[in-house]
Amino acid sequence: MRAFLLERRPRPRLWLGFLVMALCLAVETLVGIGLAKVVPVESLGVLYLVGLLVVASLWGLAVGLVMAVASALILDFVFLPPEWGPELARAQDLAVLAIFMALALLVCALARAARLLSGEMEARQEADLSAELARLLLRAPDLSAALPATAQRLAVALRLPSASVEPGDVPAEHGELALPLRGDDIRATLLVPGGLPHPVVRRLRERIVPSLEILLEAACERQQVADALRHSRDELARIAGEQAALRRLATLVAHGAPEEEVFHAVPREMGRILGAPHTLIARYEPGHAATSVGVWHAASGPRATMPVGSRWALEEGTVSDLVARTGAPGRINEYTGEGPLSTQLRARGVVSSVGCPIVVGRSLWGVLIASSSTEERLPPDTEVRMMEFTELAAAAIANAQSNADLKASRARVVAAADEARRRIERDLHDSTQQRLVALGLQMRGIEAAIPQELHDLRLQVAHTAKALEEAVAELQELSRGLHPAILAKGGLEPALKVLARRSSVPVELNVSIDDRLPQQCEITVYYVVSEALTNAAKHAFASVVHITVTADDKAIDLSIRDDGVGGADPAHGSGLIGLTDRVEAIGGTITITSPKGVGTTLHVEIPLG
Prior knowledge:
Blueprint: H1 2-6, H2 14-35, H3 45-59, H4 61-79, H5 91-139, H6 143-158, E1 164-167, E2 176-182, E3 186-193, H7 198-254, H8 259-274, E4 278-285, E5 289-297, E6 311-313, H9 319-326, E7 330-332, H10 340-348, E8 352-360, E9 363-372, H11 382-449, H12 455-482, H13 485-490, H14 492-502, E10 507-512, H15 519-540, E11 545-551, E12 555-562, H16 574-585, E13 589-593, E14 601-607
Parallel strand pairs: 10-11
Antiparallel strand pairs: 1-3, 2-3, 4-5, 4-9, 5-6, 7-8, 8-9, 11-12, 12-14, 13-14
Helix pairs in contact: 2-3, 2-4, 3-4, 3-5, 4-5, 5-6, 5-7, 7-8, 7-11, 8-11, 11-12, 11-16, 14-15, 15-16
């Protein structure tokens, strides 16, 4: 009975309530007539209370009150004396009717309270169900994965044989009932078995389906927000990765890294950022050809690109030819040509490629290529993302070419200056010096021919001859400063020993060189030592100078150290600036350390080969 009272049921039609009320009254009266002989009349009212409880529970308080009044009238008319009459023969009969009405009202109130309590319990159960469904749908990382659990929980809560929630608009099959869950359109469909009781179907349509629609809409919005956040996070991570890669490449370019290092770094960084398994940078050559100068392969894939140093003729149907002809980014989705390059690319496993031009200045220098060795093509935005890498590659190439041109120009200037020095020294030695020597000899001959009695004239000629000899000596010293002949004849070590002997400051010389060095290197070392000794004598007031020269297969190492006053500043000395230019012109480096009061140290390193 308790379960009957607390079970929430939809209210049946009113006419059916009055019909049930009449049937209950008739049955209860007949039963009462049969029990009247063995049961006190006052107890027969209990029979009517049972039917009253059922009617009041199903049709509400109003119908219950009507049945209570009707039950009291029947009890008075049929069972209380005088029987079959409305009069009350005893005073206690009035009390019996009053007690019955009180009990009837109590039963109606109990039925109403039970109905309200049942509604509250059902509402609480539906709220709990909605909360649990909200947890299932709103916490699931994938909405479609949460639908089966949602359907299972619905079936358990509503005591359904089975239930399923399918995405989209799904038609009912095999006697099922399809209840669409709508939002802006049909988001999903709730499928339940057909033939369910009408109250259950009504409850599904009126309360369960709207709740599910709200939850599904919220879940869809949450998933859209989560997808947008995930996409934004992935996009930010991609942009951060690209910026980091571009920053690393820009650092290489800013530091003037060699071309080879940049050519290897650009394909590597681009391949990792784009997710392309094979990347290549190639330089266009005269004669409609290209040469690969840098490649990169993913560790897990085949080495499909052309090796570094490979040269090939441009061929129609390949991305290198397409970029060369158009000067713009392009892609080849399939290599179908029969030429040697297409055949070789297919044999290496290249399926598709994207290429971007590298423009240095206003000229097409080369191409940057990303390739795939699977049927999956590179993303549509690959060309746009590659352009930033090609711009950095172009800047690096332009920098390298400018540096190379600058070094070559400086080397040509230094070589021209050295050649001019050699020519002047040779001209002085072969022409002017020889004429002065001959003139000196003539003056000595004139001196010898002058009679002894012409003492003053003889003395003047002697002084003139001596002045000519001193001029010849000064001219020889000047010519040796322009270009020492001993350097060309004997090599670096004898030339440095001559400089050490002629120096006004004591020199400790240590030279470890086995063979002759390239002419430009010997000249550079000679002039660095010469300038350092001059500075030590004129400006440093040093007491000793230590010079160490070593050489191996790779470089010349020169170290000059004095114990002078220090404080030498290359920015305020044309001699040190000239030494720096001369050393850097042949690819060397010079480091000057000169703290005040400690002395000056020059360290020079010149590469060989």
